[in-house]
Amino acid sequence: IPFLATGGRHGYTTTLRDLQGGLAIDLSQLNSYSIDRAAGTLTVGGATTLGDFQDALYETGYMIQSPAVSCPGYVGVTVGSGVGRFTGLFGLVADALISARLVTADGRIIHVSRRQNADLFWGLRGAGANLGVVVSASYQAHKLVNQGQILNADLIFPANKSKEYFDVLHSFIGKMPAKLAIVSLIVFDPVAQAVSWGSIYY
């Protein structure tokens, strides 16, 4: 029987559409988190989102790699590698992964880390969507940079400025500061009935 495990359910409409005659495994109740202040580590459930824990993590003096938005399940972002705002500073979300508990296809619950089931651990870090159902995961957090303060700037280019938009992005090749992140968007404005290009700078 085909199945699909879902956590934060960000973008699940497209994946569930492809699941015909199968089972959806809803992990949404696995949304807890715990922070070990002394070790600087974070443990989350299979459906916990960045939005669930980021304020509490900040209050303890830490930050962590993040996706571009706060609503996807953090584990789901991890198994897809996790490109985000702080990639230049800390690497991918998957780089912060210390260990995980997952359920295998034959129903076993196993622990994976650099020392236990190491081959599976490395697979989870970016290519793990089909290696098992991750029910919890632990991560290494980082001390706050700039006291946790960031600048968010939204720049919108109309569709007729596409060349200028891509020229701006191209200008960062080879000289992108580690503390700068750019999220590029294509947005349809229903009022103007036009497409615009958007960049969010952090």
Could you please describe the fold and organization of this structure?
It is a single chain. The chain is α+β, with helices and mostly antiparallel strands and 202 residues long. The protein has helices at residues 12-17, 50-59, 74-79, 87-90, 118-127, 162-170, and strands at residues 3-6, 23-26, 33-36, 41-45, 62-63, 97-103, 109-113, 133-140, 142-143, 153-158, 182-189, 194-201. The strands form 4 sheets. It has a 5-stranded antiparallel beta sheet. It has a 3-stranded antiparallel beta sheet with strand order 10-12-11, covered by helices on one side. The longest helix is centred in the N-terminal third of the chain and has 10 residues, at 50-59. 26% of the residues are buried.
Write the layout of secondary structure elements.
Blueprint: E1 3-6, H1 12-17, E2 23-26, E3 33-36, E4 41-45, H2 50-59, E5 62-63, H3 74-79, H4 87-90, E6 97-103, E7 109-113, H5 118-127, E8 133-140, E9 142-143, E10 153-158, H6 162-170, E11 182-189, E12 194-201
Low-confidence stretches: none
CA radius of gyration is 19 Å
- Estimate the helix proportion, in percent: 10-25%
Label the overall shape: globular
How would a textbook summarize the main sheet?
5 strands, antiparallel
How large a portion of the residues is in β-strands, by DSSP E?
A: 25-35%
Strand order of the largest sheet: 3-4-8-6-7
